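Appendix C: a fully annotated inverse folding record. The material below is reproduced so that readers can follow the format used throughout the book. The structure is listed first as tokens, followed by the designed sequence.
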């Protein structure tokens, strides 16, 4: 199979779908790899590094799309990319379709087989291809939020760790999953006063044990969300419903009860965001103000640290990518965890959450693959 890796074109996206190390693995399995010239510049991997790994270098993205059997990316295809996809291709990347009807329509019309990193599962029901980027995004959320809290950046002017004689900043984290855990680790490390809100009592018990009393935990209710949001200097939205649009847990009305200059960091923005006032921003213009509250809603947060995140992502995606390359569509039939990643196949939606969010008929992956 010929594997294609185009350069990412989303605003300030410096990650790359295949590192040179990953290319070597595909080549060792007997596959050809075609990488767009300059695709690895963001991780300091030049074309010669890819040639040394066994890849051929394409002069343009158009050449990669035209000549490849499988496209491996990082972010969802942009309009100029999805029109180049074909019904005999596999697309393997993050998609986040539920809040994105235009992309979904483009993929449906292309006929491509689209496998989304964010819905591939493991034997325990976890999301192994989402986890590494959730770890990065959770840790970055605190860095970004702390910067936004500075007065010159529109924030309250609070130092998260405080100093002797001055109370530390308060951080409320909504969601105790991978993002929330990693955000809490960073916030605790800086000396902040941290509360994690979640609706799973077993998860709250786990978090209480992990942090050994260094964070507060609260069961998620409307009252708890309001109380924590109103007292916080920073609120991190870390809610995930796999494949589905994120629930709006902080409303526009709630902003009026928050401290002026407080910061909302919406890590769920890829799935539509969990704050009612959220809309996607970019690394070049990351924040905006609503009712005196600073919003940070960058949709590709890990792109800010591409060397770390690209290698972490490739570590996670390589195993399943090699299955797709070695077996083609049979890999989806053979592996139920990989099959859970199938979102679109030859014009049909195969993910329940996406179908429900966007009003499509959902076809069971097994049935559509058998047909």
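Designed amino acids, in order:
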């Amino acid at each position: 199979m010929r594997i294609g890796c185009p350069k990412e074109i989303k605003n300030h996206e410096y990650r790359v779908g295949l590192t040179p190390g990953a290319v070597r693995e595909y080549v060792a399995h007997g596959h050809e790899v075609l990488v767009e010239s300059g695709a690895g510049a963001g991780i300091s991997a030049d074309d010669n590094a890819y040639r040394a790994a066994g890849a051929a270098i394409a002069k343009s993205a158009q050449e990669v799309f035209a000549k490849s059997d499988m496209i491996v990316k990082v972010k969802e295809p942009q309009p100029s990319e999805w029109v180049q996809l074909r019904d005999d291709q596999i697309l393997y990347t993050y998609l986040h379709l539920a809040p994105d009807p235009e992309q979904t329509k483009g993929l449906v019309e292309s006929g491509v087989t689209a496998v989304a990193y964010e819905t591939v599962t493991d034997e325990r029901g976890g999301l192994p291809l989402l986890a590494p980027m959730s770890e990065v995004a959770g840790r970055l959320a605190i860095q970004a939020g702390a910067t936004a809290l500075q007065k010159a950046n529109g924030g309250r002017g609070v130092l998260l760790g405080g100093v002797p004689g001055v109370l530390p900043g308060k951080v409320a984290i909504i969601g105790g999953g991978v993002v929330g855990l990693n955000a809490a680790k960073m916030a605790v490390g800086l000396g902040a006063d941290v509360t994690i809100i979640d609706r799973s009592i077993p998860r709250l018990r786990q978090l209480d044990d992990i942090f050994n009393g260094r964070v507060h935990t609260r069961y998620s209710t409307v009252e708890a969300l309001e109380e924590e949001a109103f007292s916080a200097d920073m609120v991190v939205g870390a809610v995930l419903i796999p494949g589905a649009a994120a629930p709006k847990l902080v409303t526009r009305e709630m902003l009026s009860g928050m401290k002026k200059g407080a910061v909302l960091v919406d890590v769920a923005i890829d799935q539509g965001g969990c704050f009612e006032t959220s809309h996607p921003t970019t690394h070049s213009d990351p924040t905006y103000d609503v009712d005196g509250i600073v919003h940070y809603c960058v949709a590709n947060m890990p792109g800010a640290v591409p060397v770390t995140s690209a290698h972490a992502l490739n570590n996670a995606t390589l195993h399943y990518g090699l299955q797709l390359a070695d077996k083609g569509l049979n890999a989806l039939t053979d592996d139920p965890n990989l099959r859970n990643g199938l979102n679109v196949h030859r014009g049909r939606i195969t993910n329940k959450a996406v179908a429900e969010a966007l009003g499509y008929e959902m076809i069971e992956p097994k049935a559509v693959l058998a047909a």
